[in-house]
From TrEMBL:
This is DsrE family protein. It comes from Streptomyces bingchenggensis (strain BCW-1). It comes from the Bacteria. Gene3D superfamilies: DsrEFH-like.
Length: 108
Protein backbone atom coordinates (compact mmCIF):
# COMPACT_ATOMS: atom_id res chain seq x y z
CA UNK A 1 0.00 0.00 0.00
CA UNK A 2 1.01 3.58 -0.60
CA UNK A 3 1.76 5.92 2.27
CA UNK A 4 0.04 9.29 2.26
CA UNK A 5 0.90 12.62 3.84
CA UNK A 6 -2.05 14.98 3.81
CA UNK A 7 -1.38 18.56 4.89
CA UNK A 8 -4.27 20.72 6.10
CA UNK A 9 -3.62 24.45 6.45
CA UNK A 10 -7.15 25.88 6.70
CA UNK A 11 -8.59 24.27 9.79
CA UNK A 12 -12.11 24.04 11.07
CA UNK A 13 -12.72 27.78 10.61
CA UNK A 14 -12.35 27.38 6.84
CA UNK A 15 -15.73 25.67 6.70
CA UNK A 16 -16.66 22.31 5.24
CA UNK A 17 -13.55 22.07 3.04
CA UNK A 18 -11.42 20.96 6.00
CA UNK A 19 -13.92 18.28 7.01
CA UNK A 20 -14.09 16.97 3.42
CA UNK A 21 -10.30 16.84 3.19
CA UNK A 22 -10.01 14.98 6.50
CA UNK A 23 -12.80 12.71 5.26
CA UNK A 24 -10.50 11.78 2.35
CA UNK A 25 -7.83 10.84 4.90
CA UNK A 26 -10.35 8.65 6.76
CA UNK A 27 -11.32 6.87 3.51
CA UNK A 28 -7.66 6.21 2.69
CA UNK A 29 -7.23 4.65 6.14
CA UNK A 30 -10.32 2.51 5.64
CA UNK A 31 -8.84 1.32 2.33
CA UNK A 32 -5.77 0.11 4.21
CA UNK A 33 -3.31 2.91 3.50
CA UNK A 34 -0.97 4.41 6.06
CA UNK A 35 -1.90 8.09 6.46
CA UNK A 36 -0.29 10.98 8.28
CA UNK A 37 -2.41 14.10 8.58
CA UNK A 38 -0.21 17.12 9.22
CA UNK A 39 -1.96 20.23 10.51
CA UNK A 40 -0.17 23.51 9.84
CA UNK A 41 -1.01 27.23 9.98
CA UNK A 42 -4.70 27.62 10.95
CA UNK A 43 -5.14 23.90 10.40
CA UNK A 44 -3.76 23.26 13.89
CA UNK A 45 -7.06 24.40 15.35
CA UNK A 46 -8.65 21.19 14.01
CA UNK A 47 -6.64 19.31 16.67
CA UNK A 48 -8.50 21.00 19.51
CA UNK A 49 -11.03 18.59 21.06
CA UNK A 50 -14.49 19.17 19.60
CA UNK A 51 -13.29 21.34 16.70
CA UNK A 52 -13.40 18.66 14.00
CA UNK A 53 -15.39 15.43 14.36
CA UNK A 54 -13.59 13.92 11.36
CA UNK A 55 -10.16 14.48 12.90
CA UNK A 56 -11.32 12.51 15.96
CA UNK A 57 -12.57 9.77 13.61
CA UNK A 58 -9.23 9.83 11.78
CA UNK A 59 -7.38 9.21 15.05
CA UNK A 60 -9.83 6.54 16.17
CA UNK A 61 -9.36 4.71 12.85
CA UNK A 62 -5.58 4.57 13.29
CA UNK A 63 -4.29 7.64 11.48
CA UNK A 64 -1.25 9.58 12.62
CA UNK A 65 -2.04 13.19 13.50
CA UNK A 66 0.89 15.56 13.44
CA UNK A 67 0.50 19.18 14.55
CA UNK A 68 3.05 21.77 13.46
CA UNK A 69 4.99 22.91 16.51
CA UNK A 70 5.52 26.47 15.27
CA UNK A 71 1.89 27.00 14.18
CA UNK A 72 0.57 25.63 17.47
CA UNK A 73 2.87 27.92 19.46
CA UNK A 74 1.80 30.95 17.40
CA UNK A 75 -1.81 30.15 18.34
CA UNK A 76 -1.03 29.44 22.02
CA UNK A 77 -1.98 25.76 21.70
CA UNK A 78 0.20 23.62 23.98
CA UNK A 79 0.32 19.85 23.43
CA UNK A 80 -1.91 19.19 26.45
CA UNK A 81 -4.74 21.18 24.79
CA UNK A 82 -4.71 18.98 21.68
CA UNK A 83 -6.54 15.74 20.95
CA UNK A 84 -5.09 12.69 22.69
CA UNK A 85 -3.09 10.73 20.16
CA UNK A 86 -1.91 13.80 18.26
CA UNK A 87 1.69 14.89 18.48
CA UNK A 88 3.69 17.98 17.76
CA UNK A 89 6.02 17.72 14.77
CA UNK A 90 8.53 20.04 13.14
CA UNK A 91 8.85 20.81 9.44
CA UNK A 92 12.13 18.91 9.21
CA UNK A 93 10.21 15.74 10.06
CA UNK A 94 7.72 16.53 7.31
CA UNK A 95 10.56 17.19 4.86
CA UNK A 96 12.09 13.80 5.70
CA UNK A 97 8.75 12.10 5.11
CA UNK A 98 8.37 13.85 1.74
CA UNK A 99 11.60 12.22 0.57
CA UNK A 100 10.26 8.70 1.09
CA UNK A 101 9.94 7.00 -2.31
CA UNK A 102 6.48 5.45 -1.80
CA UNK A 103 4.83 8.56 -0.40
CA UNK A 104 2.04 10.57 -1.97
CA UNK A 105 1.55 14.03 -0.55
CA UNK A 106 -1.35 16.47 -0.88
CA UNK A 107 -1.39 20.00 0.54
CA UNK A 108 -4.77 21.60 1.20
Amino acid sequence: MTDHLLVESGGAESGPACERFVGDAVRLLQDGHRVVLFLVENGVTAAVPGASPRVATFLRDGGELWVDTFSAAQRALPAEDLLPGSRLADMDEVADRLLEPRLRAVWH
